[in-house]
Design a protein that fits this description.
single chain; 2 domains; two-stranded antiparallel sheet; alpha/beta; Rossmann fold; seven-stranded mixed β-sheet; 41% helix; Helicase, Ruva Protein, domain 3; binds S-adenosylmethionine
Length: 300
């Protein structure tokens, strides 16, 4: 069977099984198994696949047709241009979360020129370590703490940090909530992409997410807001003067998340959109005086 024939046959198979972007998925599998760039493989359409290659590809196709995520089959994904390993213990980093890393970079570069010295960042619910690592990889003068309740996720995050070469500037801690942090622990930036799917909506998610992302990475409680309640109530003490908190949230949660933080005395600076134009991130700080009111005027 040639590459062109393989693509045609299996694109149709994926279409029948409801796999999104079916042709692209087949192309990525071919690139992975043939260990060549995808575009190069696409230009080699008449090449005949060997029996060994076909055997490996067939098993990947069967797993993908059963809706196992492509990233699990390939063992990794790309986040902010970094190659990260992922498995069933961590949420597969989503493209929209890259914007949260960019917002963090912008804040840190401004803060670096204002304050100078070493900056400290906390990534709450670090999972694969994607946000923590993206920050540490960009700024040599930053120390990062990544917390996660899942010991297995922490192992994946640590291995990713080693692979990228930033392990000396990130400390990964296993803990439930913020309890693992000492009373005097303070940072310049708190980042979090917490679980935010309402529990009752998880059964209706795509099988790739529902059956393969860890439940603990998805479930935000009855209304999806449990982790924002916790952060709004408990993380203010962790922020240095002039510091910021940046969180990702789910579709339609902007007003509720902002109200929760404002109700706990935070000043909401902005709600930012993701690349699809959907409200996705909130930036907030702790007031320095009572006159320091919120500049948030509802979801744009
Ligand atoms: C939505 S995932 C985000 C992972 C990663 N930061 C990302 O953006 O891809 C949320 C993470 O929070 C972790 N988590 C859930 N409950 C937690 C808790 N009580 N304390 C600390 N981490 C928790 C999960 O294990 C999961 O890794």
């Amino acid at each position: 069977m040639t590459i062109a024939e393989f693509i045609q046959k299996n694109t149709a198979e994926f279409e029948r099984n409801g796999v999104e972007s079916p042709r692209l998925q087949v192309e990525w599998m071919l690139a992975h198994v043939l260990n060549r760039p995808r575009l190069e493989v696409m230009l080699d359409r008449t090449r005949v696949l060997s029996c060994g290659e076909l055997g490996t590809l067939s098993s990947l196709v069967a797993r993908r047709a059963a809706r196992e995520p492509l990233q699990h089959l390939l063992g990794g994904t790309s986040f902010c241009g970094l190659d990260l390993a992922v498995d069933r213990h961590v949420l597969i980093p989503r493209p929209e979360t890259e914007r949260l890393a960019e917002l963090a970079w912008d804040f840190l570069s401004g803060r670096q020129s204002e304050a100078g010295g070493r900056l400290d960042v906390l990534d709450f619910g670090t999972g694969s370590g994607c946000l923590a690592i993206a920050v540490a990889a960009r700024y040599g003068e930053v120390r990062v703490w990544g917390i996660d309740i899942s010991r297995a996720a922490i192992l994946v995050a640590r291995a990713n940090a080693v692979a990228i070469g930033v392990q000396n500037r990130i400390q990964f801690l296993c803990g439930d909530g913020l309890a693992a942090l000492g009373p005097r622990f303070q940072v310049d930036l708190i980042l979090s992409n917490p679980p935010y799917i309402p529990s009752g909506e998880i059964a209706g998610l795509d099988p790739e997410v529902r059956d393969h992302d860890p439940r603990r990475a998805l479930d935000g409680g009855v209304d999806g807001l449990d982790f924002y309640r916790g952060l709004a109530g408990e993380s203010g003490r962790l922020l240095r003067r002039g510091g910021r908190l940046m969180v990702e949230f789910g579709d339609g949660q902007a007003d509720a998340v902002a109200a929760l933080f404002e109700g706990n005395g935070w000043c909401v600076d902005a709600v930012e959109k993701d690349l699809c134009g959907t409200d996705r991130f909130m930036i907030a700080h702790q007031p320095e005086s009572r006159e320091d009111g919120s500049r948030f005027s509802g979801a744009a």
